[in-house]
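Hey Z.,

So I finally got round to the flavin-adenine dinucleotide thing we talked about over coffee. Here's the setup:
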Amino acid sequence: MNSHYRVVVIGGGVVGASVLYHLAKFGWSDVCLIERSVLTAGSSWHAAGGIHALNADPNIAQLQAYTIDLLSEIEKESGQNIGLHMTGGLTMAGTPDRWEWLQSAYRTFQSIGIDDCRLVTPEEAQELNPIMSIDGLLGGMWADREGYIDTTGTVHAYAGAAKKRGATVVEHNRVLELNQTLEGWDVVTEKGTVSCEHVVNAGGLWAKQLGRMAGVELPVSPLQHHYLISDTIPQLEEIDFEVPMTVDLEGFTYLRQDQKGVLLGIYEMDHKHWAMDGAPWEYGMELFQEDVDRIENELTMGFERYPCLQDVGVKTWVNGAFTFSPDGNPLVGPVPGKRGYWSACAVMAGFLQGGGVGKSLAEWMIHGQPEADVYGMDVARYGTYAENKQYIKETTGQFYSRRFVMTYPNEQLPAGRPLKTSPAYSDMTAVGCKWGASFDLEVPLYFAPQGFEETPSLRRSNAFDIVADECKMVRASVGLLDISGFSRFEVSGPNAEEWLNHVMASRLPSPGRARLAPMLSEDGRLKGDLTVFNWGDGTWWIMGSYYLRAWHMRWFNDHMVDGVILRDLGEEMVGFSLSGPKSRAVIEKLTDAPVGDLPFMGCGAFDIGMIRAKVGRLSVAGELGYEIHCRMGDHITLRQALLNAGGHEGIREYGFNAMLSLRLEKSFGIWSAEFTQGYTPGMTGMDRWIDWDKDFVGKTGAMAEREGNGPDQVQVTLEIDAKDADTSGYEPIWSDNKQVGFVTSGGYGHTVQRSLAMALVDQGQSALGTELSVHVVGVERPARVIAASPYDPAGQVMRG
Ligand SMILES: Cc1cc2nc3c(=O)[nH]c(=O)nc-3n(C[C@H](O)[C@H](O)[C@H](O)COP(=O)(O)OP(=O)(O)OC[C@H]3O[C@@H](n4cnc5c(N)ncnc54)[C@H](O)[C@@H]3O)c2cc1C
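And the result:
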């Protein structure tokens, strides 16, 4: 072990080994992995080694596919056998909704280029896996690239391949302390201190303690997990192929062959946390006593699904621990506020996801940004609120118990909620507000009559008419929306303007004006769809999506310069927006200030009732509208003042479900759908806001796109001949049976009374009137390209 390395990776499980391999592969060989015990000594040695394609987040599914393809590469490169059995895999559905969901998941896979899957009938599935009973099954999905590997061999293959590329592996050496230095980190170990520029926490079951060594509280916890290995099954001795990896979603089990027996894994509804503060340091390569009573129900279902298990004994029980984040996805990337400290933790399925995690983290460290859009596993998708132990317990437990439970697109899950509420929460609840969660905050979805309960559905839900009424009300008169769920950053100081001009790609607004401002990464892809306000007094605001607060703050801080004061106002400021033709009449009743004279995209500070508010004349609904921002403590008073003033105009409150429909009718894109860090300004139409005459972050990349042949795909608006369901995102788009794009978001336009979608399609398919088709909940429907903004295309009401 040297006294200095460029990178020290702590943890020799599959994730640490993969990070090490990818760093070395991409050219950083001055890297060292330090392992407390021996390679695999955490969760990795006792994993079931299953690899399968399915993941609810398409970007993570893609990284899983990358990992599966990588496995044979590292085997070759290292010369270490990884025991790869590519048996193929089945995912089985046992309820009508699940079967519909699986059919649409299959289409999502097609959208993202995973094309070695197909749908199968129960009978076909049984031929593929003859030991499976198909009682109650409605259908399944087959995937070629599924199977299992030898876990210890795989970790050694990653490490061996890394060593061949010059990386170092040090075992039997616990990291005791981490101290930040001007150049990076001092890593204090049992065998001495090592300095490095970057340190990676790949501590698996001990990730919590490794975080705390650096003053970081990661939202991660281990939970216990069971599988059994059966004795030899006579039926398997008789067939000349291995049964595929099989997941029975309604049965909570997964199964793969293990020699002439099977391995049956169980996701227990009755979950059990373990060592929430991190595993004990002396914890060896140990297992827990199996707890058959706790898993009795799932076990019974497993034995019914595979009746042959009833005739043979259990050879081995494994009850081991592995780690989870609140949403079950990994926590990867640079930890906000800790320069040079990287997280590669909470990787629930390390053998399946470890390759993608290692690749993305290595690219991020070396190039400043991963190739793929990895927001879904970015450690900065959580804020400090997620450090709370009860929050972690509730959310990780919920994820674990629901691992195989279907979550509907309109379903709100209860764990960790309500956490933060805007001050008017109780008053709004009293008049029927139904809430959803965004980051730590409760945000209004819609206002329902007393006793109304929304039914989880893949189709238009029973809240459809309620949302329709809210949309009509906004378009016809005036609606009030709690916009506490927008982010607000204040920028001030002598260099504020210069800095903003550098990080935003647009021209900056003049005093008293706001402007849409794309923010780009160094390579010219999108980093934000923001709005910049120039209040005219030397202070500026940046507004964006609330749930990206920590993610954007990390970016701003990474690009900070002297002479700029940046504050996240998320704990100080909240607000309401008024939208609709009568909104001016309402706001004018509350002030003698000339707020009604504000031009479109104008902004300023005004007295609104008793409140000193900041007001912007804009509306995401595409109506005449005002966003009114106030101090947290003024929220209740502001709401009451606006409701009182709007009484004669028929004001009513509405929620974000209506807002999403209204913005769709205007073809206004939103982050995580039309705009992501995987897309470019040219693809998304964001280029029209760019000021090409100035220098800004990402200009070279954006210019290259502009001066080249243009993007392969462009954003369009579609109308779809859908009847009782709408698109939601990632549905494939077809022209003559050829896939030509995918939906970025969709829904029903209640004013224009059409099913709408925004989509990225091949350049050649973007002309108005182009006839296409789209899969909506697994069923192909005709669709056509229409002009953007089917409601008020000229933007007259918005500017009116
Ligand atoms: C029963 C069971 C079945 C599973 N089945 C599958 C499956 O089929 N497919 C799949 O993909 N995943 C499966 N998993 C999950 C998989 O095991 C984990 O996702 C994976 O092992 C996580 O790897 P890791 O590298 O993050 O953590 P770990 O394997 O826990 O590795 C962390 C390493 O860090 C070291 N370390 C910690 N602190 C220090 C320190 N201070 N100094 C030095 N070293 C330190 C530890 O000794 C350890 O070796 C299963 C898990 C369980 C429990």
